[in-house]
Design goal:
By secondary structure, this protein is mainly β. The chain has 8 helices and 41 strands.
């Protein structure tokens, strides 16, 4: 049809490759300033970040902690802006694996925090425009993040993340673009394996200090494995109002998603055919539907030049409904204790956070309080009806679970920054609160699983920042962190009796970090070394009768090195990299399950084993070049990771890998304020077969989720500003 026959059948990667050559000539012409900035042709200023309890804007070099900002141009060039994992490879210390399974969320861990999660995100705090995407019990998801409307994504790692409360081993925060002009855009993304997406958006200032932005996207994919189709509709809106010393922002997000689940593969299945689908996925029609809507408001008031500088108040509420069909045989569900093969819950959640900032000549103090609540009306059903020849699988059957789960947190926090001298500052903070987790069981024919637990915590942090030179900053910090068990981990007891798992303790950690940030003309370099000792690490205890229980497995230790940087030798060339080395080991012996059913753990796990799901080495690098004799920016990306153990016993591991991606990005000014942006990508150029993510400690031994093979993408975006 049009550019490079992007709708042609067959492997789109080869059309994308041809596009890089042909379209470069067709779309030649001078770049307008916005297009030039989108492609990184101008040397960018030091990014500004706001993540941190004080909420104050500061340049990255001034931040006394390890933090990385990914801007809109980097999000745009990394892919179709469907999965946050597309761009997070740029962040050292972070592992963000795309499962290529939209029935499960991304697998994200920071310095090992969150690695144990088999689904969703654990151990990290997630935010979108100040609204938590993490629940009070520590569960989280990022599928509703509107990457196309983001101005940047900030990733905070290390000790200062403990100021965000429970389960804050790191922080990922998305910030939407503010409205600066009237803007209308439409985009089409087409890729291999039936990937297609349509996006539309509008931004406009309004009268009386108001502004409005709204976006909608429709995404569909067939997938490269059988039974991996998915579709998602995402709507977001942002209404702002500013007058005098006040700024109010109202945000709305709505996600509707349907996805088939191809399940993981066993070692034998992966070795035989890594692109197959587990037969049980077809047999039981494993799938998941998600409906989520949330609304939030943020009000900021500036108090002027007095001691009280500003105040911020945020509030939000939302609902999330999930139905997930699992591949559990009817014979297994015959156990009267079993909760069924269909998970169905309706969640209501909300919260409020208020903060005041005070300032003196050399001292700035922020104090605040926050409350969050979560209520899950959780049901379980059999995933079949009938018996014998009349039995139908993959449908809603008889009720097997009916309970109400609640999680609530109440926190107060404070952070102070004291400028000791012109070059040295001390930063200290503390967050103290409690989390209450409870379950009220209404399905009593298999025992009463009601119960409640309350945990209290106080997370202190202290750091120093030394501006050794105008272009060099050194920082050091120490902290204590806290991570409660989730509602799912507390649901069942290891002894098989009814009630909450009252013997399960929260994880606590002691963290230390030493880092440096260097800005020397064309070179930016950020480094950090860290040490984390954890007590009462949480792991699997038993798995029998459809019930998984958890235990504390003792102490762990993690230490490592992170290096991130950028080099701009001239205006035409840009080099960027992110390297991580992580040592993550168990320090105590414990017992683990050998398989299912497992009524008691019997397999010894010796001290010194790797923590399942952690990657000892990972790296990402990019070489971007604007040759001048053809338009646009060409880039080569490299991403690699070491081997990853799949379970606590370290009996198997996913092999390490290295892949190369290519991209071309160009923008052309058109009449009447229009601009056409074209992105062409080829991912996994060598068509390498490898494991992209692992399902940690999977009870069925289906640990491996295959990464995408060679794949192409063509993205067209038409923008009009006035």
């Amino acid at each position: 049809m049009t550019v490079c026959h992007f709708l042609a059948s067959g492997r789109l990667a080869w059309h994308a490759l041809r596009c890089m050559a042909v379209t470069a000539v067709v779309l030649s012409g001078p770049l307008s300033l916005p297009a030039a900035q989108a492609q990184g042709t101008e040397q960018q200023l030091e990014p500004v970040v706001v993540t941190g309890t004080s909420g104050r804007e500061r340049r990255i070099i001034e931040a006394p902690y390890a933090i990385t900002a990914i801007d809109a141009a980097e999000l745009r060039s990394s892919g179709p802006m469907v999965n946050l994992s597309e761009a997070l490879g740029r962040v050292p210390g972070l592992n963000a694996a795309n499962r290529n399974n939209y029935a499960q969320d991304l697998q994200i861990s920071s310095r090992g925090f969150g690695a144990r999660s088999t689904f969703g995100v654990r151990g990290l705090r997630l935010y979108a425009d100040g609204i938590p995407a993490s629940m009070p019990d520590g569960q989280g998801q990022v599928a509703h993040f509107d990457l196309a409307g983001a101005e940047r994504v900030e990733v905070l790692r290390g000790p200062f993340s403990v100021l965000y409360g429970n389960s804050s081993g790191g922080v990922i925060a998305l910030y939407s673009k503010p409205v600066r002009e009237r803007r209308l855009e439409g985009a089409i993304d087409v890729g291999d394996f039936g990937m297609r997406q349509v996006r539309v958006g509008i931004e406009t200032p309004l009268a009386e200090g108001f502004d409005l932005s709204a976006r909608w996207s429709g995404f569909d994919i067939d997938g490269f494995r059988p039974h991996s189709e998915a579709d998602r509709k995402l709507t977001s809106a942002r209404l702002g109002w500013a007058r005098g010393d006040d700024r109010v922002t109202l945000t709305l997000s709505d996600q509707r998603q349907n996805a088939d689940d191809p399940l993981g593969l066993s070692r034998a299945q992966f070795d035989a055919d890594p692109y197959q689908t587990t037969p049980q996925a077809i047999q039981f029609d494993t799938r998941k539907t998600i409906d989520q809507t949330q609304v939030g408001v943020n009000w900021r008031h500036l108090f002027g030049q007095g001691v009280l500088r500003d105040g911020t108040l945020s509030a939000y509420t939302g609902s999330r409904s999930v139905a997930q069909y699992l591949a559990i045989p009817p014979a297994t569900q015959a156990n009267p204790r079993h909760g069924g093969g269909l998970i169905d819950f309706d969640r209501r959640y909300g919260g409020v956070d208020g903060r005041l900032t005070f300032g003196w000549d050399r001292l700035e103090v922020a104090v605040g309080a926050a409350a969050e609540t979560q209520r899950d009306d959780r049901r379980g059903y059999e995933n079949f009806i009938g018996t014998g020849a009349d039995q139908v699988l993959g449908v809603q059957g008889a009720l097997r679970r009916d309970e109400t789960n609640r999680a609530d947190t109440r926190d107060v926090y404070a952070q102070a920054e004291w400028q000791l001298s012109s070059s040295v500052a001390a930063i200290a903070g503390v967050r103290s609160g409690h989390v209450k987790l409870s379950s009220d069981d209404a399905y009593l024919s298999n025992g009463d699983d009601s119960g409640s637990l309350r945990f209290s915590y106080t997370n202190p942090v202290f750091g120093l920042r030394w501006a050794a030179r105008p272009d060099l900053t050194v920082h050091a910090s120490v902290a204590r962190g806290f991570e409660s068990p989730t509602l799912g981990e507390l649901a069942y007891r290891p002894d098989g009796l009814g009630g909450f798992n009252e013997n399960l303790k929260p994880q606590t950690s002691r963290q230390a970090e030493l880092g440096a940030k260097w800005r020397a003309g064309s070179v930016d370099l950020d480094t950090a070394v860290f040490l984390i000792n954890t007590d009462n690490e949480i792991g699997v205890a038993t798995n029998a009768g459809g019930r998984s229980s958890y235990q504390n497995v003792g102490r762990t230790q993690r230490y490592g090195v992170e290096i991130g940087g950028r080099w701009r030798p001239d205006r035409a060339v840009r080099v960027q990299w992110a390297l991580t080395w992580l040592h993550a080991k168990y320090r105590d012996d414990f017992l683990a399950c050998a398989g299912i059913p497992c009524a008691a753990p019997t397999v010894p796990v010796p001290a010194g084993n790797d923590i399942a799901g952690t990657q000892p080495r990972s790296g990402w690098a990019e070489l971007a070049w604007r040759p001048g004799f053809v338009p646009g920016e060409f880039a080569v990306e490299w991403q690699a990771a070491g081997s990853t153990v799949v379970n606590d016993t370290n009996s198997d591991r996913a092999a390490g890998y290295g892949v190369v991606n290519l991209r071309w990005l160009h923008a052309v000014p058109l009449p009447d304020g229009l601009r056409l942006e074209v992105l062409a990508r080829i991912d996994n150029v060598a068509d390498r077969t490898y494991v992209g993510s692992v399902i940690v400690n999977d009870a069925n031994g289906r640990y491996f989720e295959t990464a995408a093979p060679l794949a192409g993408l063509i993205s067209l975006r038409l923008v009009r500003t006035w």
